């Protein structure tokens, strides 16, 4: 997963492994390639704040994420990349 598709703070993402990923073709990505859409959740920083330390439990919101083949990463500018994602 890359920040270009999924926004920043990729470490806050958890993938729901009970829902199978959906494969789709993205013609706009490096001349065209297969990608996957994953269901999951991420920490909702608008509700928890961005403090480095807090006693509050994180609040998660449902979201969808785009995963691209590893061979395609780092071709769309600077940003985070995540290979191993946490699961629900």
Total strand count, please? 5
* Secondary-structure element series: HEEEHEE
Helix content: under 10%
Major sheet size, sense and barrel closure: 5 strands, mixed
Global morphology: globular
Q: Indicate the structural class.
A: mainly beta
Low-confidence stretches: none
How would you explain this protein's 3D organization?
Helix content is 9%, strand content 33%. With 88 residues, it is mainly beta. Strands 1, 2, 3, 4 and 5 form a five-stranded mixed beta sheet that branches. The chain has one domain (3-87). It is globular. The protein has two helices and five strands.
Quick structural summary:
The chain is mostly beta strands. Helix content is 9%, strand content 33%.
Mind sketching the topology for me?
Elements: H1 3-6, E1 13-15, E2 22-26, E3 33-43, H2 45-48, E4 60-67, E5 86-87
Parallel strand pairs: 1-5
Antiparallel strand pairs: 1-3, 2-3, 3-4
Provide key terms for this protein:
88 residues, mainly beta, 5-stranded mixed β-sheet, 2 helices, 5 strands, globular
């Amino acid at each position: 997963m890359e920040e270009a598709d999924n926004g920043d703070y990729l470490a806050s993402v958890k993938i729901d492994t009970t829902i199978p990923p959906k494969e789709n073709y993205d013609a706009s990505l490096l001349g065209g390639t297969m990608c996957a859409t994953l269901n999951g959740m991420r920490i909702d920083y608008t509700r928890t704040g961005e403090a480095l330390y807090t006693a509050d439990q994180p609040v998660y919101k449902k979201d969808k994420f785009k995963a691209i083949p590893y061979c395609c990463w780092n071709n769309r500018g600077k940003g985070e990349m995540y290979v191993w994602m946490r699961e629900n």
